[in-house]
Design a protein that fits this description.
By secondary structure, the protein is an alpha+beta fold. The protein has 2 helices and 5 strands, in the order H-E-E-E-E-E-H. The chain has 2 domains: about 35 residues; about 55 residues, SH3 type barrels, CATH 2.30.30. Strands 4-3-2-1-5 form a 5-stranded antiparallel β-sheet. It is rod-shaped, with a radius of gyration of 28 Å.
């Protein structure tokens, strides 16, 4: 009436390297598509921040547009309007603008 159920034959031992291969491929893809470009952008940002000097026009991460009037190790003075100067951290600079950008927007 009821037929017997038999276990399937044991599968052959799989090569451990072939089991890890998908993980290695995924890591390599992540490295070249996400990690490496992000490290490159971070290095360029750090280089740009270190090169800031008086007279440069910048945009901060908060969206403040201004001209640098004074630079120290961690902070800088940013003139955002005539006779209006604020202190910001150098690390908040997002973009270095070409000279004369502020005058063309005024």
């Amino acid at each position: 009436m009821i037929s017997n159920a038999y276990a399937a034959p044991a599968a052959g031992a799989q090569d451990p390297i072939m089991g890890l291969l998908p993980f290695v491929v995924i890591f390599v893809l992540f490295y070249f598509m996400l990690i490496r470009p992000q490290m490159k952008r971070a290095k360029e940002q750090k280089k740009m921040i270190e090169a800031l000097q008086k007279g440069d026009e910048v945009i901060t991460t908060g969206g403040v547009l201004g001209k640098i009037t004074k630079v120290s190790d961690q902070y800088m003075s940013l003139e955002i309007a005539d006779n209006v100067v604020i202190q910001v951290q150098k690390a908040t600079v997002q973009t270095l603008l070409p000279k004369g950008t502020m005058k063309s927007n005024a």
